[in-house]
């Protein structure tokens, strides 16, 4: 996608405004690479958990956490690639993009980051509520949530 069509408009700047962008490009390339490594590890982990039926039943919490971490890894990759593109284009054209708040809010990497950032704590919260119910309301827990018969 051409640079000019991604944003409402761009503002021309002088050379001093883009000073140091080359280091930022390198930083975000490394950041994206680390995100890719983490995402690869999570894919392998998900393959193990989902590929063996007893693990699918026993490790549902770990599967959900691995999914959240995979989404975070994807968000890190997309964030890095987006910023590499922005900084590299600014270095080449000496222009900086100006975007509306809506254009910023619908960025794919931002939506993925939001999902990944919320999935992990929501999973932990649900796990805590389940443990709280098991302690405070054991009969209700065993009848409705545990799935094992009462003794």
UniProtKB/TrEMBL annotation:
The keyword Transmembrane helix applies. Keywords: Membrane, Transmembrane, Transmembrane helix. The chain crosses the membrane at residues 29-52, 59-81, 118-141. The keyword Membrane applies. It comes from the Eukaryota. Coiled coil: none annotated. InterPro entries: 7TM_GPCR_Srsx_nematod. This is G-protein coupled receptors family 1 profile domain-containing protein.
